[in-house]
Amino acid sequence: MRAISYGTMPFFNRTNPTTMLDLMTWRPSVEIINETYNRIKDVVLHTPLMRNLNASNEHKANIYLKREDLQVVRSYKLRGAYNKISTLEASQLQNGVVCASAGNHAQGVAFSCKSLAIKGRIYMPITTPKQKINQVKMFGEEFVEVVLKGDTFDDAYTEALEDSQSTGAYFIHPFNDEKVIEGQGTVAKEIMDDANFDIDYLLVPIGGGGLAAGVSAYIKHLSPNTKIIGVEPEGAASMKASLENGENRTLASISKFVDGAAVKRAGDITFEICKSTLDKVITVPENKICSTILKLYNQDAIVVEPAGALTLSALDFLEDEIKDKNVVCVVSGSNNDITRMEEIKERSMLYEGLLHYFVVSFPQRAGALREFLTDVLSPSDDIVHFEYSKKNARSSGPAVVGIELKSSDDFEGLVHRMKEGGFFTEYLNDNPELFQYMV
User: Fold this and answer.
1) 417 pLDDT exceeds 50?
2) Helical ranges in 60-209 per DSSP H
3) C-alpha torsion angle, residues 239, 241, 247, 253 (rounded to 10)
4) 332 assigned to active site
5) 146 pairs with which residues across the strands?
């Protein structure tokens, strides 16, 4: 077997070498995805398509959730991983398999390795939530070894690729592979089988693009009038940047918060498919995603990871389009680490305008803090952060103060009272670099 390298993402063909022309023109057909479904259906759950009452009422549309968060490994990634590994020949598996993943693909590969009794090494970024690392070890047991390398998926990818080249272990790409894309495409088959209505809009999350490519190719063939919208996190929008520039681009840097979709470069195969099957790609702020995570948990008792909340987060930005329409949102995964919830809550409150941080100037005299509490804060305002150090040689001293409001409408009044009393110095929410350093 030889590797064909294109860009920064090499593609490993399962049998014969693939030319660049093949990569540019290949599409997963309906027939092949149906065959793939029959191959993996005894291992992969047929997840439900469920109408969500809260989202439907809020957006005045029929919102259906494709619940891949209920998959065996709590994400759709098992579909592609199992399909790929199960179709490899014995000669290709003699040195085992190797992969790189921020978590969900790793779990799919680990589950597949155990199911098929194949040895595998899984490279994950050091920043991967501990919950995902533990899940990988649980699903793979003695068949997998977890190796933590680098800060991003791309770092882990480089290490895994070097491992493959030096040991002969077969590299299982998380998205840029025909068989992986065909496996992810079975999500679309289940949607079409279960939907007893015309689908006006389908929203699908995008990281590397494997799910979006497989789903959109299948849906566009059987339901050409369905508008398919890809959704990326604002801080890692590699597919959107590539589509806007007409060629696959590598981002110089990304936000790693939405770890399941934090990819600097989409797949070359997935890009070629998505540019002809997606109607558009939109981005959503990471802090908005946090609000959606909390809303799903509080209203529907649904636990999702940041990438799993992408499509529902996008609905607010499509209000005028989707009213009275049938909308399917793919909920891609639920591998969330509970230790992240404090950060998720804070990010949500920042997005909703309920949490504000200031540099406040306090006169260095007795009673100054009491004046701030009585004259500036309203009875419903709550101080959640306070850092102050007295400077004896100065007439005033700065403090970093975090204030939680009952309503975002209270913000202007708070700032007015701070300025009127001479306390206001700097608003940190609008200064991300200073905010990150001081809070």
Assistant:
1) yes
2) 77-86, 104-116, 130-140, 153-167, 178-184, 186-194
3) -90
4) yes
5) 122
| pLDDT at residue number 8 | 39
What's the pLDDT tens digit per position in 149-174?
998 777 888 999 999 999 999 999 99
Choose among 329, 219, 205, 191: nearest CA to 277. Answer: 219
The pLDDT tens digits of the residues spanning 235-273 come to 999 999 999 999 999 999 999 899 889 889 999 999 999
Q: What is the pairing mode between strands 144-148 and 170-171?
A: unpaired
In the block, which residue shows the tokens 């909703």? 352
* Cβ-proximal residues to 185 (8 Å cutoff; 6+ apart), any chain: 28, 33, 36, 213, 214, 215, 217, 218
**180-200 pLDDT per residue, tens:** 999 999 999 999 999 999 999
Three-state DSSP class for residue 420: helix
Cβ 378 vs Cβ 407: under 8 Å: no
- Which one of 77, 227, 240, 295 is the catalytic residue? 77
CA angle 346-348-354, nearest 5°? Answer: 80
Checking if the pLDDT of 34 tops 90, the result is yes
Cα distance between residue 234 and residue 239, in whole Å: 11
- 406 as an active site residue: the answer is no
Kindly list the structural domains of the chain, giving each domain's residue range(s) and its CATH number in brackets, ordered by start.
3-76+179-336 (3.40.50.1100), 78-177 (3.40.50.1100), 353-438 (3.30.70.260)
**Mean of all residue pLDDT scores within the chain:** 91
Give the active site residue among 332, 334, 348, 361: 332
Backbone phi, psi, residue 122, to 5°? -120, 115
Q: How far is CA 87 from CA 29, 73, 92, 94, 211, in A?
A: 17, 20, 10, 14, 19
